[in-house]
Amino acid sequence: MSHYFINDDSVKSEEKVTKAMIQNELFTFWTDNNVFSKNGLDFGTRTLLESIDANSIQGKVLDFGCGYGPIGIFLGRHNLKVDMIDINERALRLAKKNAIVNQVNVSIFASNLYENVKDKYDYIITNPPIRVGKKVLYEILIGAKEHLNKGGELIFVIHKDQGAKSVLRDMEEYYQVKILQKNKGFYVITCKTH
Questions:
Q1: Are the beta carbons of 47 and 188 closer than 8 angstroms?
Q2: pTM of the predicted structure, to 2 decimals
């Protein structure tokens, strides 16, 4: 099975609508084949979003690997300036549709890793594509530093079975690392730039 962090439009499209309650707010998301978590909001992303106090976040946010958009759209609803990127064109089309459906104003564009990212951010928030392998995963996590303002934070979720503990340890070389939350094996980790 291919992972979702590629641009492959050969898979038949079967769009469907799902609903999700996130922090007592209702969201509607269109999903499709060949995008991550097509059956609705996944537990990892939910854990990540439930651990964030969106009202305390200030500044500019990048949703890396946005998929059909739950992270960026949730944050966009809290009047934050949000950019959302993905390499998967189908995911980007869905994210744009979902931004309209949920009445949020966000900027959504295609980028292979950070290739098209020109700005600096106060937060980069992601449920990273683990299936890309450790090398690319670390390019995403460590590469975030180059796109964060001083004192900026990378916030991501990873499962213990996907190497959460070793990733946590490895990130301490680059950031001030803290566990925000643990839930059923999922770790929400915040990495602050020095």
A1: yes
A2: 0.93
